[in-house]
Specification:
The protein is of the alpha/beta class. The chain folds into four domains: about 5-160, Alpha-D-Glucose-1,6-Bisphosphate, Chain A, domain 3, CATH 3.40.120; about 165-245 and about 255-260, Alpha-D-Glucose-1,6-Bisphosphate, subunit A, domain 3 (Alpha-D-Glucose-1,6-Bisphosphate, Chain A, domain 3); about 265-345 and about 360-375, Alpha-D-Glucose-1,6-Bisphosphate, subunit A, domain 3 (Alpha-D-Glucose-1,6-Bisphosphate, Chain A, domain 3), CATH 3.40.120; about 380-460, 2-Layer Sandwich (TATA-Binding Protein). The chain is built from 14 helices and 23 strands. Strands 1, 2, 3, 4, 5, 6 and 7 form a seven-stranded mixed beta sheet that branches. Strands 18, 19, 20, 21, 22 and 23 form a six-stranded antiparallel beta sheet that branches. Its cofactor is Mg(2+).
């Protein structure tokens, strides 16, 4: 029995292979995606990562697409942002087979409409799920009535890596920067495929870590939001005296940075840095940031003449808000960075290029830690997960304890956000996981001591070990 409820998430499809996601399911999803996404374009672009199951699943999906009378542009091995490039440049809907940072037994599909436009539950994914469920219940994929073409679709193989690299170089020019040495940890993921093409020219010397494409992830998980996965990168940056280090997740759409000391650079500081660069290029623009990014981000955007736009967490929401506001750039706390001139899609590689360009063109030739100092204004906890039996009850306890008082305000844009604007400033956000019995807490404050006090008090309340108001 194929249970699509278990694998179709809010923004993508993801599950264990072959128990939850197999070739038959991929083929049915291919027919459904052709029906929902490709009826106006006549073709889809399909790519996949380095996982052992990815080529077979991508081929099965492509067979479903062509069975529906829609052509396939097979991009082969790609990073997710390379797939977005192909979708944008070719103006075709796309499907990327990857489970991002998940362990080797997982795989999945990230879908987009033509021009790399996002697909989520409310923008096509729900329809694709329903259509695929019907197809599987009837014994397998068949051509939908809405796509009555007599002929099956064709498959064209196309390598987009060189064009993708050239497009990124057209957006961020590294020529003329001072020589830089950068350690790159690809985590055996798709950055091992894309980094040589993108960073292999100009004044950048790349020290590679784990560039061999291996979906078993023999060295560490390709999940740079986990500090444990950055240890090798940090050590190598210090040992080699490198200017900085870059870490990518498995499908290379997220990028994390460590400075010359090996210290992790927060995605909020990168969001602020890139926002300043984009506002210098397009003055007065809107900059989108999710509600968990540092309060320094909207402050810095405003100081540089931009308009900060706060939004909920999630790439579909970020992209939609960028389209609505005409924003030139958007950033998230999770290491996703979105660019108007990259079809509003996220690209870890483009964020890396901005970081290298800013450092390499700095007239004072400051190290990265000093360059970023103005963008790191407050103390942050990072995301802390708590397992709870009843997320709603735990959130209600927190709101009752901390949601009222002098200078305190609350909102429910995404979970519960409580803010104390007076000195000492602090705020926190508490959000339930979509898939697990978890509450995710992020705290920021004017100083480390205040942050720790608020963090500990809120965690005690979440876990029903009540303390006083911070």
């Amino acid at each position: 029995m194929h249970d699509l409820d278990a694998i179709v998430k809010a923004y993508d499809i993801r599950g264990v292979v072959p128990d939850q996601l197999d070739d038959a399911t991929a083929a049915a999803l291919g027919v459904a995606a052709a029906e929902v996404l490709a009826h106006g374009s006549g073709a889809m672009v399909v790519g996949h990562d380095m996982r052992a199951s990815s080529p077979s699943l991508a081929d099965a999906f492509a067979a479903g697409v062509t069975a529906a009378g829609v052509d396939v542009v097979n991009a082969g091995l790609t990073s997710t942002d390379q797939l977005y490039y192909a979708s944008g440049a070719l103006d075709l809907p796309g499907a990327m087979f990857t489970a991002s940072h998940n362990p080797a037994r997982y795989n999945g599909i990230k879908l987009c409409r033509a021009g790399a436009a996002p697909v989520g539950q409310e923008t096509g994914l729900g329809e694709i799920k329903a259509s695929a469920e019907k197809s599987l219940a009837e014994g397998g994929p068949s051509r939908p009535a809405s796509l009555p073409n007599a002929r099956p679709g064709t498959v064209e193989h196309r390598d987009t890596l060189g064009d993708y690299a050239a497009h990124l170089h057209g957006l961020v020019d590294l020529t003329g920067i001072r020589p830089l040495t950068v350690v790159v940890d690809a985590g055996n993921g798709m950055a091992g495929h894309t980094v040589p093409a993108v960073l292999g020219t100009g004044g950048v010397t790349v020290v590679p870590l784990y560039f061999e494409l291996d979906g078993t992830f023999p060295n560490h998980e390709a999940n740079p939001i986990d500090p444990a996965t950055l240890v090798d990168l940090q050590a190598t940056v210090r040992e080699r005296g490198a200017d900085l280090g870059l870490a990518f997740d498995g499908d290379a759409d997220r990028c994390f940075v460590v400075d010359e000391r090996g210290a992790v650079v927060t995605p909020s500081a990168l969001t602020a840095l890139i926002a300043v660069r984009e506002l210098a290029r397009v003055p007065g623009s809107a900059i989108v940031h999710n509600l968990i990014t540092s309060r320094a981000v909207p402050e810095i955007v405003t100081e540089h003449g931009g308009t900060p736009v706060r939004t909920r967490v999630g790439h579909s929401l970020i992209k939609q808000t960028m389209a609505e506001t005409g924003a030139v750039f958007g950033g998230e706390h999770s290491g996703h960075f979105y660019f108007r001139d990259f079809w509003r899609a996220d690209s870890g590689m483009l964020a890396a290029l901005h970081t290298l360009a800013a450092l390499g063109a700095d007239p004072q030739r400051r190290p990265l830690s000093q360059l970023l100092q103005p963008y790191a204004r407050y103390a942050a906890s990072g995301e802390i997960n708590s397992t709870v039996d009843d997320a709603g009850a735990a959130t209600a306890r927190v709101e009752e304890s901390f949601g009222a008082g002098p200078g305190v305000s609350c909102d429910r844009l995404d979970g519960l956000t409580v803010e104390h604007a007076a000195a000492p400033m602090w705020w926190f956000n508490l959000r339930p996981s979509n898939t697990e019995p978890l509450l995710r807490l992020n705290v920021e404050a004017a100083d480390e001591a205040t942050m720790a006090r608020v963090r500990d008090d809120v965690l005690a309340t979440i876990r029903d070990r009540r303390k006083g108001h911070p």
